[in-house]
Design the sequence.
């Protein structure tokens, strides 16, 4: 069993992939807790798509994917804010239009290149096995910066999630806090796109945090720890499964997608366990905590500042 | 003008244009209900989760329409079940299922030869390869969808605006909701040949969101959405063939442009008109 978990990582490229996948799992898990608390799932999904044309442009002209993604990430944050200010348009519709529009621009850019379909596949689904040391360094730097910001603003961000009015009354700038969180989400998306691709990043942000939310509902810090743990485990197990399938069973499994599928499986297993234990507990005794659920704030899908 | 004429002369292009116009009109009309009920994110997850079904149907050689429709509804069931668990709210469930469904499709397709090419057709459509049989499928799906929408129009609108009185009047809320979900899923499946799974949501949401900026009336809004959808399909296809760029994404960009322009110039709800009557922009609570 132990050998199964370590054997795939004898080759250097698999070691690099493991380091990258585990770092992204931890980062996505921790930031994802805020995404879920603020119900920014759709917003995060939109960001993963809107950074795509920047990557595509950088890809076509041979520039840095990170820079391209950052530039469009910033532009889309502004556009999202402006579009969602129009009260006639519900924020979810504006997000959907902006998301698909930006994404399409990226595909159009790529469609001019000679190896259209192969290039598109790399940008959409990433290449965690082709990660080099520079990219690992970029991910590590982004991760450390992001975690420091989240740690420093922990109290403010949590307060803003649960009670925006109190946060405002205490003198915190809610708009600024929202902006900080959106920038953090963008940074995580940008750091992850090269490994898992722009379509699958959303799983790193949502699924580990959703698992953590199933397991603990009281402490945000504990949720973050559990989400980070599951994110890392998903990255590790996903690579193992993908390696086993490809090397020992002749079944080629795309590694990024296998990581996501592993996380999804972990979610459903946790869901099952939680539902069954709750059912058993409720049969034996009265539930100890009746008001244990979070009181979430805001609209169905609040967007940005 | 001559080059535009020659664009239409090839049967391949004629089929593509017909498909684009029909799909645009159907998606536009159904989209009005999606936008009314704020189901954009949900539709998005439906399109992503339909993706593995498309792959399975392709691998097994099944009919795409039945294969994907059945699986899509299965996904809706999963989302509904998962959201019922306390401490998972519906947007989280939607997000998890969306990403998981998509990854499942990618894993399935990566185990097949010809990985990149097939994937691209599924993701962003390949409208230039539609056959006459596909046109017949789209047309019949369109007729069925429009008849279904017409039959339960009153129920759908009332349910969207006032679910409380809708239930009090004795209507079965669940039945109408499920009917609408089936209609949306069928629309997604119909739109896939033209714009693919990722962009189907563009054709559904953008024309309807555009229409809402121009009118308050549901019927008129459907007419405008159908017009915007069909016109965008037409213009997008012509531009893509002129400049030799991917067709599905071009259609999506055209329809997104229609929406963005409308948010600016719409007579009552656009930025320009609101600046003129000096309403503060920050009216949103």
Sequence:
């Amino acid at each position: 069993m132990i050998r199964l978990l370590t054997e795939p990582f004898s080759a250097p490229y698999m070691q690099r992939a493991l380091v990258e996948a585990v770092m992204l799992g931890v980062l996505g898990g921790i930031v994802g807790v805020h995404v879920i608390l603020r119900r920014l799932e759709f917003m995060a999904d939109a960001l993963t798509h809107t950074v795509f044309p920047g990557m595509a442009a950088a890809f076509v002209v041979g520039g840095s994917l990170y820079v391209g993604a950052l530039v469009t990430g910033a532009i889309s944050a502004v556009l999202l804010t402006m579009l969602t200010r129009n009260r006639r348009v519900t924020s979810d519709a504006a997000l959907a239009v902006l998301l698909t529009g930006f994404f399409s621009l990226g595909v159009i850019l790529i469609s001019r290149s000679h190896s259209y379909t192969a290039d598109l596949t790399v940008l959409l689904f990433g290449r965690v096995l082709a990660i080099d040391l520079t990219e690992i360094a970029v991910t590590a730097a982004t991760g450390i910066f992001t975690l420091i910001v989240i740690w420093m603003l922990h109290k403010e961000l949590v307060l803003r999630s649960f009670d925006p009015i109190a946060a405002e009354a205490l003198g915190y700038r809610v708009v600024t806090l929202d902006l900080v969180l959106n920038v953090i989400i963008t940074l995580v998306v940008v750091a992850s796109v090269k490994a898992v691709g722009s379509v699958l990043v959303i799983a790193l942000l949502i699924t580990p945090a959703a698992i953590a939310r199933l397991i603990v509902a009281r402490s945000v810090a504990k949720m973050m720890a559990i989400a980070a743990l599951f994110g890392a485990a998903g990255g590790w197990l996903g690579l193992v499964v993908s390696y086993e399938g490809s090397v020992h069973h002749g079944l080629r499994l795309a590694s990024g997608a296998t990581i996501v599928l592993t996380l999804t499986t972990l979610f459903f297993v946790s869901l099952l366990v939680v539902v069954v234990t709750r059912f058993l507990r409720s049969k034996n005794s009265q539930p100890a905590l009746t008001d244990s659920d979070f009181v979430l704030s805001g609209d169905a899908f609040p967007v940005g500042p | 003008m001559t080059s535009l004429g020659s664009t239409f002369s090839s049967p391949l292009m004629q089929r593509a244009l017909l498909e684009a116009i029909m799909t645009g009109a159907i998606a536009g009309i159904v989209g009005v209900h999606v936008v009314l009920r704020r189901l954009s994110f949900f539709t998005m997850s439906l399109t992503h989760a339909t993706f593995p079904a498309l792959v399975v149907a392709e691998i097994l050689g099944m009919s795409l329409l039945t294969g994907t429709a059945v699986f899509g509804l299965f996904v809706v069931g999963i989302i509904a079940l998962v959201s019922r668990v306390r401490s998972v709210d519906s947007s989280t469930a939607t997000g998890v299922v969306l990403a998981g469904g998509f990854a499942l499709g990618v894993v399935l397709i990566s185990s097949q030869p010809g990985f990149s090419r097939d994937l691209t057709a599924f993701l962003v459509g390949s409208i230039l390869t539609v056959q006459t049989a596909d046109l017949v499928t789209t047309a019949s799906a369109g007729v069925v969808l429009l008849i279904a929408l017409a039959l339960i129009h009153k129920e759908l609108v009332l349910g969207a605006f006032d679910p409380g009185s809708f239930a009090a009047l004795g209507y079965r809320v669940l039945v109408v909701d499920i009917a609408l979900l089936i209609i949306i899923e069928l629309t997604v499946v119909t739109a896939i040949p033209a714009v693919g799974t990722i962009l189907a949501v563009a054709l559904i949401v953008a024309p309807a969101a555009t229409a809402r900026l121009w009118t308050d009336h549901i019927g008129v809004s459907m007419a405008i959405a159908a017009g915007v959808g069909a016109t965008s399909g037409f213009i997008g296809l012509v531009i893509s063939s002129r400049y030799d760029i991917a067709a599905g994404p071009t259609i999506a960009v055209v329809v997104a442009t229609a929406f963005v322009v409308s948010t600016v110039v719409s007579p009552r709800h656009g930025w320009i008109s609101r600046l003129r009557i000096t309403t503060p922009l920050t009216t949103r609570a």
Q: What stands out?
A: The two ends of chain A are 48 Å apart (CA to CA). DSSP finds 13 helices and no strands in chain A. Chain A has one domain: 2-284. Residues 287-305 of chain A have pLDDT under 50 and may be disordered.
